[in-house]
């Protein structure tokens, strides 16, 4: 799969000078006063896919939540659309930030069409991303496969035409073919100008769509570089996953 995706005419890279849409500067965040992640510097620009990798418990979700405004920073700053912000998630969402949390947020008892409408999403826009959902529009979401449910979740997030998409383990528990489908849709949206920050466990798949990669280990950035550098330094990236001594 890696070859398939990588071989599909890679996009032109965003200009390095473009200001980040979303950035963490010296960001520390955690729960109950104790930091889980410390002094992180992460930037996401329009048209760019930034992937956050790391072992279980490294603090990837915590980072995503702090960047989204769902968790207040303990130190440092988050910049959104060019300014430092302490706005909560719902306000950032109104100004173009879309968060796809780890648990698929479909309502199982509603149909796909109803799920899209609850998310204020025009079904036609969702079908433009995932035409394969057309035959399921009037089925209850609970009857769909996990991959189809994740398509509904992602279609709903993308159809709001966000400026930035923050997604937590889109591929969790899904078959490789579906993972490819979802990540291809994310890459296509980035190529249209979306700024993307992905937390991913599927390292190989994630690298095929990434521009930049950060590896978190024990709450700190253990490795950062371009996707090409990550491919060329697999040992350094992999060592961040080794158990702590
Ligand atoms: N709501 C919470 N309250 C207290 N501690 C939490 C909370 N959520 C997460 N933690 C702790 O913070 C640490 C980092 O968790 P986090 O979910 O950010 O890591 P992760 O890298 O996303 O891991 P995983 O890949 O397992 O989801 C863990 O030790 C976790 O137990």
From TrEMBL:
GO molecular function: ATP binding; ATP hydrolysis activity; branched-chain amino acid transmembrane transporter activity
Domain of life: Bacteria
Family in the record: Belongs to the ABC transporter superfamily.
UniProt keywords, alphabetically: Amino-acid transport, ATP-binding, Nucleotide-binding, Transport
Name this polypeptide is given: ABC transporter ATP-binding protein
PROSITE patterns: ABC_TRANSPORTER_1, ABC_TRANSPORTER_2
InterPro entries membership: AAA+_ATPase, ABC_transporter-like_ATP-bd, ABC_transporter-like_CS, BCAA_Transport_ATP-bd_LivF, P-loop_NTPase
Signal sequence coordinates: none
Keyword ATP-binding (UniProt): yes
Keyword ATP-binding included in the entry's annotation: yes
